[in-house]
Amino acid sequence: MSEQTPASVKAWEDFCEQLKAAGAVLARPSTPRDELSQAEGLRKLARMVRVGLEATLEYADTRYPEIYQLITPTTLGEGETSDARYHQAMIDGRRTYILSGQRGDAPFIEFTVYAGKIGLDAKSAQVGALTERELKVDAEGRYELVLSPEKHAGNWIRTTPEASLIYIRQYAHDWSRTAGATFHIREAGVEGLRPNVTLEQVMTALPRTADYVARSTAIWAAIVDRARQAPVNRFTPFVEDEPSPEMPTGHRFSSGHFRLEEDEALEVRFTPADVPYWGMDITNYWFEPISYPSHRSHVNNRTAVLEADGSVKVVIAARDPGARNWIDTRDHREGMMMLRWSRTALPVPPIETRVVKMSPCPCQCGGDSHEPVHETRVVKAPS
Predict the structure, then answer these.
(1) Is the dihedral of CA 5, 6, 12, 17 positive or negative?
(2) Which of 7, 179, 225, 228 is least enclosed by beta carbons within 10 angstroms?
(3) How is residue 26 annotated by DSSP?
(4) What is the reported pTM?
């Protein structure tokens, strides 16, 4: 390269070269080689470039932070649920921030401060959190939350010098009838507009983004790989003290890995207690919810239809089996399944599963029968 070549050109070429290494995740021995999984993996790599640049460049100025929507139908892949809306802002834990807005009417909301973001930083740990149970809201439905090292009256999360991220989760049973919260964040004492971007900022962001693409994709694929080592088509509750990246507040989980032939369905049965919230989702191999944010591949305690005995039967299948609670795999032969059990001290219920065969529909419609006709396996998750 000649002496006259701008540093920006070298930065771009290095970025492209560094990105190449992230593609190795598609060729690992554990990575499925079917066309759908490979297509989704390649797409995820491309999507993570956008996610990484937003975190390291577009919204990275901690003097002029901005709350932005992190998870959308095209930017996901950490086992999100269709019942949640996710936002975040990058912060400096040594400074004081005021976060304010309208509370909205989502029944559950969580503000969580982390030191480090999974995939972007070497490690991630929760610093502090505040949920709808503690959040004080005025008569007009407005809230104000202070993030700072020093104690403040009212809504406050103590930050540490390592704190780098405020993550916001909202949960609702039906978002078509729910108004979400609004968010505005500013550093105390800082006014005016964000300054123009500098070459140094972009040159710093590019290698961090490339590293994020490779690290984040590999981390979540490895989590799925570990689940694939357990018995297939069954749920196992998370160990209470088991460390998990970016674990939210007030939730417990039971999860598993499904693998089905084209003519098979998985029946999932459990008896839920009357809890504030539970929800069941499935994801693809890359830990992307299969139909975010729709409920085509999701049920919760408001949308599920109960059996006469109070239990819930959910059927996971690629085609509609005529079940009242159908989770559509959308032609995915395998993936993750997860039960969220939230805002309660009650234990996660035991979950029974069985794989069943589906036969041609007797009504000559060309589809599958409306009831499974042959049981192939029965497994019961430990309580």
Answers:
(1) positive
(2) 7
(3) G
(4) 0.90
Question: Which pair of structure tokens corresponds to residue 333?
Answer: 């032969």
Cβ contact 305:322 at 8 Å: no
Longest C-alpha distance within the chain, in Å? 78
Q: How confident is the model at residue 296 (pLDDT cuts 50, 70, 90)?
A: confident
CATH code reported for the domain at 232-380: 2.60.120.1600
Which of the four pLDDT bands, split at 50, 70 and 90, describes residue 378?
Answer: very low
Coil, strand or helix: which one is 57? Answer: helix
Q: Are 180 and 85 in contact (CB under 8 A)?
A: yes
In this prediction, residue 363 carries a pLDDT of: 52
Picking from 291, 236, 242, the residue whose alpha carbon sits closest to that of residue 258 is: 236
Domain chopping of the chain, boundaries: 7-187, 232-380
- What three-state secondary structure class fits 36? helix
Q: What is the pLDDT of residues 2-24, one digit of tens each?
A: 568 899 999 999 999 999 999 99
The rounded radius of gyration (Å) of the Cα atoms in the chain is 23
- Domain covering 7-187 in this structure, CATH number: 2.60.120
**Tokens, residue 244:** 């998990």
